[in-house]
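Q: I'm building a small set of examples for a reading group on sequence design. Run inverse folding on the following structure and report the sequence directly after it, with nothing in between.
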């Protein structure tokens, strides 16, 4: 990470904080500056991480080699126009804005700005994020490598084409909410069958965590499911109930609807 030089965060929200926490083990706090409009939030970030904070986006951008754009998508054009005169060709912009294509980020900056688009997700807050990256028209392999190093500090990274970024948003960007709903529903089922709430939630959480780890270690989920489903057993009865109620179709539709919303944001 130290090869990225001085890093400026434009916006100091939760995802920006997760990345700050991830990169600081390999960087001095003096190499990080955060531009954040809310005084209380600026003070909290400065106290927690001993980084430089400012209310001035232009000040943060002027002295940085890498800029991480973490504002609301509808604010992007205004924010970028405000730093365009200090965004020189030696700087790299990385955006984590949902639904905002690289061309929309490049236009306010003018000339040939180096832009990388990223879609992380909230498990980055605990170092277990899933991020997808794609480069803009003027971004090179070194720029993608710099973004890769940044996001690998908070989880895993996949390279995709920009045309796939809305699908990423629908799957992994929004996906934690689907999994939270699954865990809650599993726990509710346990409570319905007589388990104490705390016990049911602990079992549901560990079940999801363990199952995900088994898939990550290389086995296809369908193979793993078949191993659990003994003929005439309890698990196949439960899986039948899920199929009867359209569980898989509902999850697929959730990804589609979230991806469609991401595309809508890009158009506006």
């Amino acid at each position: 990470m130290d090869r990225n030089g001085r890093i400026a965060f434009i916006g100091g929200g939760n995802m920006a904080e997760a990345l700050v926490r991830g990169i600081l083990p390999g960087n001095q706090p003096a190499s990080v500056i955060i531009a954040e409009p809310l005084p209380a939030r600026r003070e909290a970030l400065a106290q927690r991480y001993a980084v430089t904070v400012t209310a001035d986006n232009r000040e943060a951008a002027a002295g940085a080699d890498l800029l991480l754009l973490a504002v609301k998508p509808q604010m992007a054009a205004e924010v970028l126009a405000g730093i365009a005169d200090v965004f020189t060709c030696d700087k790299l912009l990385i955006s984590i804005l949902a639904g905002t294509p690289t061309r929309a980020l490049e236009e306010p900056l003018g000339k040939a700005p180096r832009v990388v688009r990223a879609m992380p997700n909230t498990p980055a807050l605990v170092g277990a994020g899933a991020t997808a990256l794609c480069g803009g028209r003027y971004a090179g392999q070194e720029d993608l490598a710099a973004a890769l190093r940044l996001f690998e500090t908070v989880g895993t990274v996949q390279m995709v084409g920009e045309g796939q970024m809305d699908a990423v948003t629908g799957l992994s960007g929004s996906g934690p909410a689907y999994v939270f709903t699954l865990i809650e529903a599993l726990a509710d089922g346990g409570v319905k069958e007589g388990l104490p709430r705390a016990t049911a939630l602990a079992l549901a959480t560990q079940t999801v965590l363990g199952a995900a780890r088994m898939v990550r270690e290389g086995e296809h989920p369908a193979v793993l499911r078949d191993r659990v489903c003994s003929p005439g057993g309890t698990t196949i009865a439960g899986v039948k109930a899920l199929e009867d109620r359209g569980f898989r179709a509902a999850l697929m539709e959730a990804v589609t609807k979230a991806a469609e919303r991401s595309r809508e944001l890009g158009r506006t």
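The chain has two domains: 2-160, 175-267.
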